[in-house]
Amino acid sequence: MKRIASGLLIVALLAGACSRKGGGGVKLRTDADSAAYVLGMNVGVNLLRMDSTLNIEAVCRGIRDVAAGNPHFTMDEARTFYLRYVNYLLPEKALAYEEQFLADIAKSNRAYARTSSGVTYTVDELGDQDPQSIPSSDRDSVSLRWVIRTADGVDRYSSYERGDTIRAALSELRPGVRESVKLIGKGGRIEAWLPAKEAYGASGDEKLGIGPNATLYYEIELVEVDKWNARR
User: Fold this and answer.
1) Is 186 helix (H, G, I), strand (E, B) or coil?
2) Are 138 and 169 in contact (CB under 8 A)?
3) CA-to-CA distance for 209 and 205, rounded, in angstroms?
4) Is 9 a residue whose pLDDT tops 50?
5) At residue 134, does pLDDT exceed 80?
6) 181-232, pLDDT tens digit by residue?
7) Helix axis angle, 56-67 relative to 2-12, nearest 10°?
8) DSSP helix/strand/coil, 55
9) How far, CA to CA in Å, does 225 sit from each of 60, 176, 187, 199?
């Protein structure tokens, strides 16, 4: 509650940054105005990072109403609604968008198929189909090269650029990756779109620059398979 309240009070200081026509409120005639504008830019950047679909006019209306002492919500109502929006409405909205996004990929390209978990994939090269060359148990170990890319086309990791190979037991990999490599054999290649729940989920991965609830694209090359039953 204190965090929301203090946040709204800070935003209230920016009332002049939003005119009733959505622009021109800051004249930049003084250093103070310029500083206020820069502060407004920072608020705008942070808000857009939270949700790029935000209605800017509604944001400005909230700022003006708080500054005028006549907000649409009480502070308790604002907290209740915001927590509901963040914890329920926003994830549901992201999930619906993701489902439509993946369905459109499969519909627009017949080379793609979908699993029951939502992983949307196409096999570029099937690889060796000998049972000992296909991972089937989460105890099996694999060597992989991959590219991880966000839905907006930004590469977050590339084994080819780094010149490395990932070696791990299947149980250590993300669910969608485990599912993908089980579809190919040693030497195989697969392209797969992973729903957020099959990738990094709501937590994301700060180190890789992957945000919460991110739909990810993987290019995976299965270099080697070490079957658990072969080591027993």
Assistant:
1) coil
2) yes
3) 6
4) no
5) yes
6) 999 999 999 999 999 999 999 899 999 999 988 999 999 999 999 998 766 5
7) 90
8) coil
9) 56, 18, 9, 22
Least confident of 20-29, 57-66, 179-188, 216-225: 20-29
Number of H helices and number of E strands within the chain?
7, 7
Domains of the chain (ranges, CATH numbers): 2-72 (no CATH), 96-226 (3.10.50.40)
Contacts of 124 (CB under 8 A, 6+ apart): 188, 189, 190, 191
The per-residue pLDDT for 146 is: 98
Average model confidence (pLDDT) for the chain?
86
d(Cα 219, Cα 188) in Å, to the nearest integer? 11
Residues 6+ apart with CB under 8 A from 177: 144, 146, 192, 194, 218, 220
- The owner of tokens 């700060």 is 206
Contacts 24+ apart (CB under 8 A), 82-87: 82/4
Least confident interval from 16-30, 45-59, 92-106? 16-30
